[in-house]
Amino acid sequence: MDIQEHSGPERVIDKIRNESAKKICLIGQTYSSIKKHMIEGPSGLLAEADRRDIKYTYNRFSGEVRFHDFNAVCKCIPMWPVTTINHPYRFKNRRFDFIWCDRVKIDDKHDHEFKKYLMLSVQNEKRILYST
What we know:
This protein has one domain (8-131): Rossmann fold, CATH 3.40.50.300. The chain contains 4 helices and 6 strands. 31% of the residues lie in helices and 22% in strands. It is globular, with a radius of gyration of 14 Å. By secondary structure, the chain is α/β, with parallel strands linked by helices. 27% of the residues are buried. A 6-stranded mixed sheet has the order 2-3-4-1-5-6. Helix 1 (8-17) crosses helix 3 (45-51). Strand 5 (98-102), helix 4 and strand 6 form a beta-alpha-beta unit.
């Protein structure tokens, strides 16, 4: 097993810089937690982009981060509250180049479906990063 010693933001920025990912999905428990931990936090996506001098625009309302120089976009999908729209099936027919899941807890009933639709979204298990 190949174990990577990189944080989620480092992996996302690496994928963007080597142009292997144009459409990235950030999955967390809530919009608030995605913004607080994955995007705006001291070790979040924006801090990593700043450390590497990569220009971006951030829409705080939608949680969307655009990296114009690389024609890449990161979109947020929260897991809570569980509604029809937030059901695992919402990944059906969506395509992402890379998915970063952070602090995601799913009940046993939906766990298999969630992972199945994540796989359908990226077509390759190596394009999904789970972090805690």
